[in-house]
Amino acid sequence: MTEKIRCRWANPKNPLYIRYHDEEWGVPVHDDHKLFEMLILESFQAGLSWECILNKREAFHRALDGLRLRRRETGEADAGARYRPEQTKNQGRRE
Questions:
Q1: How far is it between the farthest Cα atoms of the chain?
Q2: Is 50 a catalytic residue?
Q3: What is d(CA 4, CA 87) in angstroms, rounded to the nearest whole number?
Q4: Alpha-carbon distance 67 to 60, whole Å?
Q5: Which residues, including other chains, have CB under 8 Å from residue 88's CB and lie 6 or more apart?
Q6: Is residue 6 predicted with pLDDT exceeding 80?
Q7: Which is more confidently placed, 52 or 3?
Q8: 3 falls in which pLDDT band (50, 70, 90)?
Q9: Which of 3, 9, 24, 42 is catalytic?
Q10: What are the counts of helices (DSSP H) followed by strands (DSSP E) for the chain?
């Protein structure tokens, strides 16, 4: 079996990063829901590594209603009540 050739930035010790590299990176996306998810994740990336965002991807899904693209009829207070920063914050970091 030949070893898969990967980019140097793909951390071989992180299975989430390897899966992202092998299955998502560089693959054209035409699904609106997937594009919306990537837009939201990219927005949260500011100042963080993409690896960090991938590690927190499931937490973002839980915190932000599954990152589903749909029209919502709820008010600002409802949306704010669902999002809790501690769900996506690095637990080892001090304020």
A1: 55
A2: yes
A3: 34
A4: 7
A5: 44, 56, 59, 60, 63
A6: yes
A7: 52
A8: confident
A9: 42
A10: 5, 0
- Name the amino acid, one letter, at 67: L
> Is 42 tagged catalytic?
yes
Any catalytic annotation for residue 51?
Answer: no
- What pLDDT, on the 0 to 100 scale, is given for residue 19? 94
CA-CA-CA-CA torsion sign (21, 25, 31, 35): positive
- 35-86 pLDDT tens trace: 888 888 888 888 889 999 999 888 888 887 777 766 555 555 555 555 566 6
- Give the 3-state secondary structure of residue 61: helix
CB 60 within 8 Å of CB 88: yes
Catalytic residue among 9, 17, 37, 50: 50
Is this structure's pTM higher than 0.70? no
How far apart are the two ends of the chain, measured CA to CA in Å?
48
